[in-house]
Amino acid sequence: xAELIEEAAAVxxxxxxxxxxxxxxxxxxxxxxxxxxxxxxxxxxxxxxxxRQLKDRIKAALSILLSQGRAVGVHVVxxxxxxxxxxxxxxxxxxTRIGLRLAEAAQVDLVxxxxxxxxxxxxxxxxxxxxxxxxxxxxGDPTPMRVRFSYLSDDEIRDMAATYGRxxxxxxxxxxxxx
Length: 179
Fold this sequence. Notes:
Elements: H1 2-19, E1 35-39, H2 43-46, H3 52-69, E2 74-78, E3 96-99, H4 105-112, E4 133-138, E5 145-148, H5 154-164, E6 166-170, E7 173-177
Parallel strand pairs: 1-2
Antiparallel strand pairs: 3-4, 4-5, 6-7
Helix pairs in contact: 1-3
């Protein structure tokens, strides 16, 4: 994973060099597509990893991606269960934050930013009967927005996989493959 994150950071630095003096925003193309790095349970890479050198490599590369990657088309989407600063020291570098159901009121401000619970983001009051409900805070907008993401149960996901199988695109043509 460290190598993958470092490779993404290298792409971001390379693209920044190419864009310097020409434009501030990368426009995705087939040759230089938008890259989205999805990390589930980021704490495994930032806090729970025991190899100090590996942890430092990951933190350095992630810091580059989180501070410079968006403009050059290298995005990071990460999920974490424990939002404390000790677990995720650079959480302020995430410009868009999503808080789903949280266990404690204090966690709301840790996830979404200072004062967000007082502004109405009551993530700690979302009932278990409403999976997918949460609040989103976008960089520059001090107002949390209540959202509802679609929720699919494991059975529904298995049914879709069995029904639709795997789709592949080759030379712009969609081909159906085996599930």
